[in-house]
Design goal:
By secondary structure, the protein is α+β, with helices and mostly antiparallel strands. It has two domains: 71 residues; 116 residues, no CATH class. 47% of the residues lie in helices and 14% in strands. It contains nine helices and five strands. A hairpin with a 4-residue loop joins strand 2 and strand 3. Helix 1 packs antiparallel against helix 9 and helix 3 packs across helix 4.
């Protein structure tokens, strides 16, 4: 099981954000109750997919650590654009919908938030990191600090055996927050993370 300090190490490496910055963000997120705690310090508790999702969201702006919890609340609660979900359900075959529902059901929920999606993706990655990476190798998350929305590009292999057969499905989801205003002081830059990085986090969390 991964400790918070190990999760910080990996996220810093994957995002190329300064390690001390990620550590400070993690401390504020932990003190606000968004990281698991079972003792003192960042090395005490075992991390979950939800913990990793919270920390990833909190550092998306790569800004001031004291604002980490504000960022987490704003970005984490961004809602999926329902028309994106409807488009997937209308255009996908019943077989593809069934397979997608079996792999990652949150993606077909019209009411889910950004952090719920990210938690679901990370939970899937912990089950079989290698399989997850094979299924989602071309998928990525992009947070646009100018428009205050997250764009998630899913390219998911739905075949029973990775890369076999014609079962690749691609779609994009947008997540936005209705109250965020342009040029907010909380957001400093845009950030991108591909799903290979998500697979590495899943592998760490799943470690015995």
């Amino acid at each position: 099981m991964a400790r918070a300090a190990e999760l910080v190490d990996l996220i810093a490496a994957l995002t190329a954000i300064d390690h001390a910055t990620v550590t400070r963000h993690a401390r504020f997120v932990r003190e606000a109750g968004y990281l698991s705690q079972s003792g003192r310090g960042l090395s005490a508790a075992h991390m979950t997919a939800g913990d990793a999702a919270h920390l990833l969201v909190a550092i998306l702006n790569n800004g001031i650590a004291q604002e980490a919890v504000t960022i987490l609340k704003h970005i984490g609660n961004m809602d999926v654009f329902k028309a994106d979900v409807d488009k997937v359900q209308e255009n996908a075959s019943p077989d593809m919908l069934a397979r997608l529902r079996g792999i990652l059901p949150v993606l077909l929920d019209r009411e889910h938030t950004f952090v719920e999606m990210l938690t679901g993706v990370l939970e899937l990655a912990t089950l079989d990191p290698a399989m997850f990476e094979e299924r989602t190798r071309n998928s990525s998350i992009y947070f646009d600090c100018d428009d205050y929305q997250a764009l998630v590009y899913f390219d998911i292999n739905l075949a029973d055996v990775p890369m076999i057969g014609e079962r690749q499905t691609s779609f994009q989801y947008s997540y936005s927050h209705p109250t965020l205003q342009p040029k907010s002081q909380h957001f400093k830059k845009s950030t991108q993370l591909d799903f290979t990085g998500i697979a590495r986090i899943g592998e760490l969390i799943a470690r015995k």
